[in-house]
Design a protein that fits this description.
Length: 377
């Protein structure tokens, strides 16, 4: 791998992702067993330029489009699902900053950190509208304490992008959106990630114990419990990228099934293969539609855009899980064996169900927006 960025064509971005994926491929099964994050993965993601691919060229990045970043993640997902999904967490935070930049908001400080090699870590799944933790106002900032999980890739992260609940704010409970360096005193990691799938994503718990957060590190203070427009931006930027990583798993599952059952003509095999392709096509088309609606991170910050994105995410997630389930059924008993990668991919694929918003919350959110209510998330 070299330190030079590839040309910003889709073919060359995918080639860079393929090169990283092929370096990681041999260790995927071992890391699935041990649950250990690949440290070399992040070295490769930096040296290949992929970690800064989304950063605009004028800030030292690769100038990749939103869709191209999705194709990078999809290609990584074909090789190493845990690394792809963890890397999607970094990528979606960069994408949100690109949205801000496109809408006249200064994102230079974050871009500079990323181009210097920083990996951003999101704790968004445990923050959300109400957030958690505690903040106390002090001179020049806040003292914060919290436990945030899951935080994918946190062992190798440079900056945690998180939020903290400020219960005793003068105007009622507030939420602070903050960026905290992992090197800050009081920040630690507890290795709590022990799961069905995506076992090597390093999605452990980040612990903040009386950490000082200066005012300059706070990007937003908002009322707790009220849906904030910033989450519309996060959903529109993040969900296409996250789901693209999972789509890469489905790509490999369909390819493997095609190879394993080639030439078979039993009626049930043909029917199962056709049903698998229905689910796969549904997921592929929905994720493609998410990128089209994103308009290369120029989408409008509206509840309606977020609701449509989240609806597509839920249906795509169901279709992706069904794709790998049907892949196993199509292959037959061999697909149920741990000697076949379909077993691991099926476990990994279930992770897509838990990204915001899970089905029950998404349907309520979309229903609220459709019927003119303020969404609650």
């Amino acid at each position: 791998m070299t330190s030079t960025l590839p040309e910003t064509t889709t073919t060359e971005w995918i080639a860079a992702a393929t090169a990283v994926g092929e370096h990681l491929l041999d260790g995927v099964a071992d890391r699935d067993r041990t649950g250990e994050l690949s440290t070399s993965a992040y070295d490769l993601l930096r040296s290949s330029g992929l970690s800064r691919a989304l950063v605009p060229v004028e800030f030292g990045g690769g100038g990749a489009t939103h869709r191209q970043m999705g194709q990078i993640l999809r290609e990584l997902g074909r090789h190493d699902p845990s690394t792809a999904v963890a890397f999607a967490m970094h990528s979606h935070l960069v994408a949100a900053q690109v949205w801000r930049h496109r809408h006249g908001i200064d994102a230079r400080p974050v871009f500079e950190k990323v181009t210097a090699g920083a990996i951003l870590v999101s704790t968004g799944a445990s923050d959300w509208v109400d957030s958690n933790g505690s903040a106390v106002r002090v001179d020049g900032g806040y003292r914060v304490s919290a436990r945030k999980a899951p935080a994918s890739g946190c062992e190798l992260g440079a900056v945690a992008v998180t939020s903290i609940r400020w219960e005793d704010a003068p105007d009622g409970p507030q939420v602070l959106h903050v960026a905290v360096p992992f090197a800050a005193p009081g920040v630690s990691i507890e290795k709590t990630w022990d799961t069905l799938g995506l076992r090597a994503s390093g999605s452990h718990t980040v612990v903040f114990e009386d950490v000082f957060v200066p005012d300059a590190a706070i990007s937003l203070i908002r009322p707790a419990g009220v849906w904030p427009p910033i989450l519309n931006v996060v959903m529109g930027a993040a969900m296409p990228l996250v789901m693209a990583a999972y789509l890469g798993i489905a790509d490999r599952a369909v390819e493997l099934v095609t190879d394993l059952v080639a030439g078979r003509s039993e009626a049930h095999t043909l029917s199962l293969a056709g049903e698998m392709m229905n689910s796969y096509t549904t997921a592929t088309d929905l994720i493609d539609a998410m990128f089209s609606a994103s308009d290369n991170l120029n989408f409008a910050n509206t509840d309606e855009h977020a609701a449509r994105t989240l609806s597509r995410k839920t249906v795509a997630a169901d279709a992706l899980v069904a794709t790998v389930r049907l892949a196993i059924e199509t292959v037959g008993g061999a697909g149920y064996s741990r000697g076949c990668p379909l077993e691991m991919w099926y476990r990994d694929m279930h992770g897509c169900l838990f990204h915001p918003l899970p089905r029950a919350k998404q349907t309520r959110f979309t229903g609220q927006v459709l019927l003119g209510h303020a969404p609650q998330g």
